[in-house]
Amino acid sequence: MISSKLQQGINDQITAELWSSQLYLQMSYYLKHQGWDGYSHWLRCHAEEERKHATMMADYMTDRGGMVKLQMIDVAPTGWGSVLEVYEHALSHEKMVSKMINTIVLHAIEEQDFATENFFRKFVDEQVEEEALFGGIVDKLRKAGDSGVFFLDAELATRK
Ligand SMILES: [Fe+2]
Ligand SMILES: [Fe+2]
């Protein structure tokens, strides 16, 4: 059985993953509205990934006898400017999520709940990948001139 403290932490994390999904879907439609089909498509795919993270965590909690409690998801913002601003926001959001995951691992270790530690270590690795992914796009956008921004839009349209 999973402790009530960890259940609370995991429920908060599930909410954060669903919030990430909501945020990236909103970003996707914001960019689509501006005609950036590739950047939009890429974020739409990523919104699906975040939803998967939420259900993986919820399934894990259920397997351990914990109770999943879905919480309120805030309204996502819409007031971005450039494509770069959108992706910078996404990158800083991923960094915040990484901190939350690290805190769950820390609490799991403190409680000697090694199953939860193991399960969430996969997400520690996942966050390294995601920060590198978003960071790579931010980096390219900062270096790109006008034509580079169009080129990257076409490249990101190919994400499966
Ligand atoms: Fe995630
Ligand atoms: Fe993420």
What structural class results from the helix and strand content?
mainly alpha
CATH third-tier fold name: Ferritin
Ligands, deduplicated: fe (ii) ion
Largest sheet: none
Observed structural traits:
binds fe (ii) ion; 160 residues; 5 helices; Ferritin; mainly alpha
Give an overview of the whole structure.
With 160 residues, the chain is an all-alpha fold. The protein has one domain: Ferritin (Up-down Bundle). The longest helix is centred in the first third of the chain and has 30 residues. It is elongated and about 55 Å long. The mean pLDDT is 97. The protein binds fe (ii) ion (2 copies). The site of one fe (ii) ion (FE2) has 4 residues, from helix 1 and helix 2.
Topology:
Elements: H1 4-33, H2 37-63, H3 83-110, H4 114-143, H5 146-156
Bound molecules: fe (ii) ion (2 copies).
Describe the structure in brief:
The protein is an all-alpha fold and 160 residues long.
